[in-house]
Amino acid sequence: MLEKIKAVIFDLDGTLMDSMWMWRDIDIEYLGQFGFTPPEGLEREIEGMSFTETAEYFKRRFALPSSVEEIKSVWLEMSQDKYTHEVGLKPGAGAFLREIRARGLKTGIASSNSHALIRACLASNGVLDCFDCITTSCDVAKGKPAPDVYLSVASSLGVAPEFCLVFEDVPMGILAGKNAGMKVCAVKDDFSKEQTEAIRELADYYITSYDQILDGSYERLKG
After folding, report:
1. pLDDT confidence band for 186 (50 / 70 / 90)
2. CATH architecture of 7-19+89-220
3. What is the mean pLDDT of residues 192-205?
4. pTM of the model as a whole
5. How far apart are CA 173 and CA 192, in angstroms?
6. Neighbours of 195 (CB within 10 A)
7. What local confidence, expressed as pLDDT, does residue 223 receive?
């Protein structure tokens, strides 16, 4: 999988970090303040959106009285403690990060989350120094499945897209990586298990643990 690869780029939530469970809880608590219950399928509707795009969607969808910046601020406050103390790395991710750094590969984060939460989470898990570049979808013109965030990271790292390997957990993210002209490895996450068929159709590789890359037991889905 790592042959000819010069840079490895990770999505954060559900890919590098086991964090998707948390956002469902936040949606329930936040919308409950306005008398709403999160409708079925809400997560799929906002999949791939940037932090700002998601806030704009919530404001429009639920006619919220708060401004987009106020919504984002409340979400940050609600999630900061969880990202710092409760969210951990996916299986094998720490060892994989140390290995690719030892090999001299460049690394980046391309996430729909906020810079503050990304850095808090990476720091609390002791891997913040493993990354050369952190870019969010709010830093570019369009969120996933547009390729913007992945192309931006590749440019910052100084690596052509064809030499980049992306790790993602949901179809919109996988499409973003593929639209950027990169190889994509899908990472199993319970949050997106009902999308497994679509995920496997889109991705080049599939893993349930990052250990599978180092021991060679990962699935090759294409080529």
Report:
1. very high
2. 3-Layer(aba) Sandwich (3.40)
3. 95
4. 0.86
5. 12
6. 19
7. 66
Please indicate whether residue 41 or residue 11 has the higher confidence score (pLDDT): 11
Residues contacting 60, CB < 8 A, separation 6+: none
> What are the residue boundaries of the structural domains of the chain, listed by start?
7-19+89-220, 20-85
Tokens 């954060």 sit on residue: 12
Give the model confidence (pLDDT) of 150-185 as tens digits.
999 999 999 999 999 999 999 999 999 999 999 999
Residues constituting the chain: 223
Identity of the amino acid at 149: V
Backbone angles phi, psi at 164, to 5 degrees: -110, 140
